[in-house]
Amino acid sequence: MALRPLVIRLARAGVPWTVPERSSTGAAAGVLSVLCAVAFLMWLSNPFAAALLVPALHLWMWAVGPERRARRAILAALVVGGLAAPALVLAYWAMSLGLTPAGAAWNLVLMIAGGQVRLLTAVEWSIFLGCAVGSALIVARAARQRDREDVAVTVRGPITYAGPGSLGGTESALRR
Questions:
Q1: Which of 2, 32, 35, 59 has a beta carbon 3.0–4.6 Å from 131's, enabling a disulfide?
Q2: 23: buried, middle or exposed (CB in 10 Å: 19+, 13-18, 0-12)?
Q3: Residue at 174 is within a domain
């Protein structure tokens, strides 16, 4: 069941990581709406954890907005900046316990499996990470589309030059 979307995408497109060309305005609204809902639900149970989502809400609103015209590096910095607060808390937690990154990930899995972290909290943070991936994909797609739009139309030769045959004088023009 979990691999079904990947198999369907492979069958249709041939490459699983390509994104279909569509407008990202609806996707941006969807990601930000889900992130707002998660922040509100997290605020009901733990306001301090919800405070970690506030920078992401503000920065990703600028990054995924349809009127964005910033450079690719700035948009990527906005997406990464939204992840900074939770990442700093996670790094502090791992360093205070003397864990490596792999050890911290394993400890987190054990805490969820052992019931130390509530299932609702794990689901909320999973949805937050899904919104992070969605924001990164929207920014990547927008940068790729903007690169296509920036290609200017070029004119070969002087602009006033009409080209051969347009003034008559060639056999194809004389037949008319």
A1: 35
A2: exposed
A3: no
